[in-house]
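Re: beginner question about structure tokens

> Can someone show what the tokenized structure looks like for a real chain? I only ever see the sequence side.

Sure, here's an example I had lying around. Input first:
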Amino acid sequence: MRRFDNKTVVITGGSRGIGLGIAERFASEGANIVLSSNEELVNEAADRLRDKYSAEVVGHVTDVTDRRQVVEMLDVAERSFGSVDIGVFNAGIITIARLEDMTEDEWDRTLEVNTKGVFLCCQEAAARMRRAGRGGRLINAASGQARQGFKYTPHYAASKFGVVGLTQSLARELAREGITVNSFCPGIIETDMWAYNDQVWGRLLGDYGPGELMAEWVRGVPMERAGQASDVAGLVAFLASDDAAYITGQAINVDGGLIMS
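And the corresponding structure tokens:
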């Protein structure tokens, strides 16, 4: 029997990058998956996972800032598979700008997706887990910037510090019902988001060509490599497993030793 046979996991931000890597891990270990994103590409990703792993995967287009759509996403999980056992709330965005150039809309949208979106997903998933009475796992995407902020991204850092605070608060509230709540803090991971980071931070921080800034930062990682989505997926799968039943309220770095705190 595979580790997540007969378990249902809902993954947001799942059409690419870290979210898709997490979905791959759960599909390979037998989970039923509702794969969600705000883009139609998520349905193609779901098709590929079904074909590759013979997994039960349902794609769903969801705006995590809209409660009605979050409710529908979780209703789809219950209708399709009978339960919501694990929620991996990974949807997130970033923009990069000097303080004087950052717009109020950028600030609001980043907090809305990265923090409010996690809150809405946790709130609705926890309600279903409570009704079922079998416990569950809520696992939220934070960031290295939930440990320390960085220039030109105060809104992103604030949003991810918020995820850690939310995680700790919900962990205390839900602990006696067997629902654990944890977050993961990726460092430099080879994804589309980090390609954007390299380009825009590179322009603002100096005369860096494509890939040069990321390469410089990777040299500062003790393990001397960028992470892969699979590195994050390994941590998330552990936190979702029975082996992590006594772990809650934690924010765990997965960054090759970049931030040791």
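Each token stands for a local structural state, so reading them left to right follows the chain. The longest strand covers residues 179-186.
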